[in-house]
Amino acid sequence: MLKSPSSAVVQSRKLVTTVARIQHADHNSASSRTNVSTEEPPTPLPSSIPIGRPPKSMSASRRVREPTPEGKPVTKPPSLGMFPLGYKEAVYQWWNSVTPTIAERNVISCIPYLREAVASSTSPATEVPSAEHPGQTETSTKIDPYGPRVWKSTMVMLSGKNRGMNEFSVERVGEPVDDTLVMLHGYGAGLGFYYKNFENLSRAKGWKLYALDWLGMGNSTRPPFRICAKDSAEKITEAENWFIDALEEWRKIRKIEKFTLLGHSLGGYLGVSYALKYPGHLNKLILASPVGIPEDPYAVNADMPEPMDSSFQDEFTVDQQSTTESRNYKALNGNTPGQQPEANAPKKRPYPSWLVWLWDANVSPFSIIRLAGPLGPRVASGWTSRRFNHLTPDEKQKLHDYAYSIFRQRGSGEYALPYLLAPGAHARRPVINRIHRVGRQIIKPATETEPAVKETGYPVVFMYGENDWMDVAGGLAAEEKLKQAKVQALLHGTEEEKRKENGGAKVIIVSKAGHHLYLDNPDEFNDYVRKELEETREQTLREKASS
């Protein structure tokens, strides 16, 4: 089904055509804008501001036409195309780029109130700042009104060679911990993208917060990714296990019996896989714009699928400031929530054959950034300028540096993508076909003297942005399946199982947000998640009181 990359030379040859297409599109985009008639003002790109130009005014670099006192419009500077960062700035950033560890800490420094917990040491060498240990970082000099709270950044080493998970944690000083929240990012991202959520979510008493980089992604170690299975179904299982086995090993190292899992995009998909393989360790599952929920026949059955319904391109082309504007919500397939697409609706135009070939050949999009060398920051700006353009200039620059520091690292977990998803982000093993088993697994098999111990359900929350390119209809269908599973459990379960029944499902829409809802509208996202944490906390206290 898939072809693994063989060598840097082969990868380079595969990417020549792709890079040429991108450069050609960039050149045409800039040329077409400069040739627009002066009588018809060009449509401005909403805040597509070049990143990494501290000396220049951000507003001046992208000034929209405004009437002058004489009534004549001010000429808008030519657009820089799909890659806003200039060549000189790109080379400068590449030459002066910071290490991934420092880039992550720079993002963390944007978090208010939290302070780093630094262990005291008798060794003078440990007190000398370095790239890997730059010293204590205070995210704010202000007194913490919700604390005190401290954060730690740790590499948790796992069994095997070069296997470790980058961990960020926030703990409330002097308070007992009864509940744990584990936050997992999406494909190719990193835990730093949650920087607008850590402070708010750690206000809840009784909770300890962890954010992890998946093995082979973010700032976790990057062991070689290999698939040994021959069967298509076994390849999917092996790819999923590569991630969730590492998560389970981390849980055992941290001695966490139960936790609430919050996963975004691919992190949500893998969260479901974890729940099914390792039952008995979750008390709630929060899926933020999860990928792979609905079933697509092309993704499931075809070697080179051409999905019908997806706006996966929006992840790379839609301006984020327009995403954070409110509009009348519609599902990805153009239907209002609750409606089903027509059976005979015309198929959308399939993806270009060259894109499908690159996807199926397992050519990672980050390979382009790595092969671009000194122009890597410019290529990365094509995504970061659109994804972060609703943030302040300082935060936008730090997120750009952080993203580039992740993208340029050696390829590892990123190569799992085509084993799990088909072009257009449709799952090869759709979650909708297995979601009803979440929270209903056997924890301990039956013996001659003891009956089997089964899960009695736990809440599953689906969260989508108002302007999400991920189809909320999949979440609604999954919600219905989970509710049906609860009805069956109440009808056929034992009296003890009925008494402990805690299953539930809901779908939440975050306004003025897209796929990255935690970053697009963090205040509303945090409010919803805090309410879920409060409900979980109440359940924990009830269980402790009855035990």
Strand order across the biggest sheet?
Answer: 1-2-3-5-4-6-7-12-13
Shape call: globular
**What assembly state would you assign to the polypeptide chains in this entry?**
single chain
Q: Report helical residue fraction.
A: 25-40%
Number of helices: 19
Q: Averaged pLDDT, please?
A: 78
Rg for CA atoms = 24 Å
**Which class do the helix and strand fractions yield?**
alpha/beta
Share of β-strand residues: 5-15%
Describe the secondary structure blueprint for this structure.
Layout: H1 8-34, H2 58-61, H3 87-95, H4 100-108, E1 115-116, E2 149-157, E3 164-172, E4 179-184, H5 198-201, E5 207-212, H6 232-254, E6 259-264, H7 266-277, E7 282-288, H8 297-301, H9 314-317, H10 320-323, H11 353-360, H12 365-371, H13 376-387, H14 393-407, H15 417-420, E8 421-422, E9 426-427, E10 442-444, E11 453-454, E12 459-465, H16 472-492, H17 495-500, E13 504-510, H18 517-520, H19 522-546
Question: What is this structure, in a nutshell?
Answer:
The chain has 547 residues and is α/β, with parallel strands linked by helices. The protein has helices spanning 8-34, 58-61, 87-95, 100-108, 198-201, 232-254, 266-277, 297-301, 314-317, 320-323, 353-360, 365-371, 376-387, 393-407, 417-420, 472-492, 495-500, 517-520, 522-546, and strands spanning 115-116, 149-157, 164-172, 179-184, 207-212, 259-264, 282-288, 421-422, 426-427, 442-444, 453-454, 459-465, 504-510.
